[in-house]
Structures are given as C-alpha cells and as structure tokens.
Amino acid sequence: MSLSADHISRAQAAFLGLAIGDALGATTEFMTPNEIKSRHGVHKAICGGGWLNLKAGFVTDDTEMSLAIADAILASGVWSQKEIADNFVTWMKSKPIDIGSTVRKGIRTYMTKGILGMPRNDWDAGNGAAMRMAPVALYTVGDEALFRRCTLEQAHLTHNHPLSDAGTLCVGEMVQAAILGADRFQLHECTRRLTDEFPNFKFHNYKGNASGYIVDTLQTVFHYLFSTATFEECLIGIVNQGGDADTTGAIAGMIAGAFYGMDAIPKHWKKKLNKQVRHEVTVAGERLIHLSPLATRPQ
Fold first, then answer.
1. Threshold 0.85, pTM exceeds
2. For the segment 230-246, what is each residue's pLDDT rounded down to a tens digit?
3. CB contact at 8 A, 141 and 25
4. Shortest CA distance to 218 belongs to which of 230, 241, 233, 232?
5. What span, in angstroms and rounded, lies between the C-alpha atoms of 201 and 154?
6. Ranges of H-type helices in 157-211
7. Hey, which CATH number is domain 5-296, 1.10.3720.10, 1.10.4080.10, 2.10.25.10, 1.10.1270.20?
8. What SS3 state is found at 49?
9. Where are the domains of the chain?
C-alpha cells in the first residue's frame, strides 16, 4: 500500500477532529449532564465559555500539546523524545490556559532533573498521553514497531501506567486503522484486543462516567463512537456527557475524523474553530503523514 490522497485527507481530518472536539468539549468540561441540559439544552455549538472562559473556537492543552509534538517532529523530520520534551517545556513556560497536574509534574521533572521518562506510578492512569496521539499516529503509520516505541516515549514523558499505556496505544491504533480504511467492525476489533487484556475498559454497559481516568475516558469515547452514525452525532453525545469533555471530545474527534473523513466534519464547526489552529492542524496532518513509513518506504 502506498500513500494516497484519501490517506492524506483522513490524516488531516484526524488532527482537525482533535481540535474541534477539544474546542467543543471545553464548554462543558467538569459539568454534569443535568447541568449541561439546564444551561445549554443540547450543547452542539463551538461557543467558548466553560470553566476556562475560552473565546469561541479556541482550544486547550489537548490540541496545544499535540501541536508541540508535531512541531518537534516537523522541525527536524525525525522523532526525538528530547525535542518533544523541550517543546513541552516551552509550552508550559508560555503559561497555557490549562495544564493537568500529572503533565506539569512530568515536565517539571524533565526541567529540573533532565529525566526523559517518568518512572511507573500508580497515580498516572490519566488520559493526558492519549489526548495527544494524533501526531504520533500520523508520523508512524506503516511501521508497528516505530509506532509502539514513539507512543510509549511520548506517553512516559508525563504518564507511566499500564492502563495509560494500553489505552494510548489503542487510540493510536484506531486512528491508523481508520486512515487506512478500516470499517466499523475493524475498529471494534481494536477495542476488543484492549478489553481482552484489560477488562476494565469494557464499555457495553456504559455507566456514564467521563472523568480524566483513562478507563472512564475511553469507555465514553468507545460508547459514543459505536452507538452513533456520524462524526457530529458522536461528538455531540460525548461533550454532553460532561466530565473531562475537552479530552473525551479530542480523542473521539481524532478517531472519528479519520474514520468518517474530512467531508463529514460539519462546515460550521470548521468555520468556528480558530483560524490559526485550523491552519496549523491541517498543515501538520499532511506533513506528518508524508514523513510516515507509509509514504517513505520503497514500493
């Protein structure tokens, strides 16, 4: 298989979907479904606000950290865990509007001790590594060993826990499978492999928890991904669940974007997303997949 126009478009849709899910979900982050219903009815507009009081179309750490990874790769054309860590430091020093405690701890550890990779920690089973998987998935598509190495290297800069590792790998696998044309059953097979090894992630009896715990996050993403029929339905369902809605939205957006494709992303959401962010993610999506083994290996 060689790189096609469809692969490029789906790669761009994955990164754009991440940013749109982030911007849409930021409005309802930390709210309950009842609070969302009382305030918004059904939340389905990129309108900003939320606890961060964002301007409409602006994004949070999910997109910003993903772009930090993308920028590190694109600056040199190769993977460098240190360059990614350096970009994370630059990002944190810019005083971002939001940064998770586990992420902050990992970046500060690198700053003060020069350690590339946190030790295993039972408290690191959050979703902060999975939320920034789009650039990793795009850059490594076509090489399973490279994908696994890069995924765990970027994850362990801040998160090191078996559940975080497994969930983050699964998200990347789903993005790559969707870019390569997987159908719904093939995507579901990715989740089945995850739940066979870690039954915690089973989502068929979804309980409605949408916290920052990686299990809650992916149960929410998988439930809505497989119980809806469009990109729009999927993201609306997820962000109206509240909780860590910017990150559940971002993760669902990258998978659903790759799966449904660019034309399935509502035009009004694309238009409302901050123009600079929209430009950066779509350009990065194309450039990253052009560097991937899918594009560069001999045919």
1. yes
2. 999 999 999 999 999 99
3. no
4. 241
5. 22
6. 162-179, 184-197
7. 1.10.4080.10
8. strand
9. 5-296
